[in-house]
C-alpha cells in the first residue's frame, strides 16, 4: 500500500511514453475557488492530454504528493505543456500545493 503502490497507476505507461517521446501535452489544473482573502485551496485535479487521450489525476487526496513520473513530466523541458490561460497565479497554485 501507500506511496509505493501509488507509483504504479493506470496512466503511468502513457506518461512514460510522453516523456520518452518528448510529446506536447494539453495541461490544466482545477481547484475549489478561493472565495475570500487568505483562502488558498489546493489543486484538486491535474489534466494532461493528447489528441486522443486524457489523463485526469485527482490530487485532492494525495496530501501534497505526486508520483515521480508526474513530477518528471511536469518539470521536463522536453515535454511541452499547452494550456489556455495558464498564468503566474496557476504556477503559484501548483507550487504551493506540491
Describe the structure.
The chain is built from 4 helices and 4 strands; from the N terminus they run H-H-E-E-E-H-E-H. The longest helix has 10 residues, at 88-97. Helix 2 (12-20) packs parallel to helix 3. Strands 3-2-1-4 form a 4-stranded mixed beta sheet. With 98 residues, the protein is an alpha+beta fold. It is globular and about 40 Å long. The relative contact order is 0.24.
SSE topology sketch:
Blueprint: H1 2-6, H2 12-20, E1 24-31, E2 43-49, E3 54-58, H3 68-75, E4 80-82, H4 88-97
Parallel strand pairs: 1-4
Antiparallel strand pairs: 1-2, 2-3
Helix pairs in contact: 2-3
What tags apply to this protein structure?
about 100 residues, alpha+beta, four-stranded mixed beta sheet, 4 strands, globular
Secondary-structure element string:
HHEEEHEH
Strand content range: 15-25%
What's the total number of strands? 4
Assembly state here?
A: single chain
Helix content: 25-40%
What is the molecular shape?
Answer: globular
pLDDT under 50 segments (min length 5)?
Answer: none
Distance between the termini: 21 Å
Radius of gyration: 14 Å
What is the mean predicted local confidence, pLDDT? 89
Counting helices, strands and paired strands, the structural category is alpha+beta
Largest sheet, strands/sense/barrel: 4 strands, mixed
Amino acid at each position: 500500500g501507500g506511496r509505493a503502490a501509488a507509483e504504479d497507476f493506470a496512466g503511468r505507461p502513457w506518461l512514460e511514453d510522453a516523456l520518452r517521446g518528448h510529446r506536447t501535452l494539453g495541461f490544466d489544473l482545477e481547484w475549489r475557488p478561493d472565495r475570500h482573502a487568505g483562502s488558498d485551496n489546493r489543486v484538486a485535479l491535474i489534466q494532461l492530454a493528447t489528441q486522443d487521450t486524457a489523463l485526469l489525476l485527482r490530487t485532492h487526496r494525495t496530501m501534497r504528493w505526486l508520483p515521480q513520473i508526474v513530477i518528471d513530466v511536469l518539470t521536463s523541458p522536453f515535454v511541452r505543456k499547452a494550456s489556455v490561460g495558464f498564468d503566474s497565479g496557476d504556477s503559484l497554485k501548483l507550487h504551493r500545493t506540491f
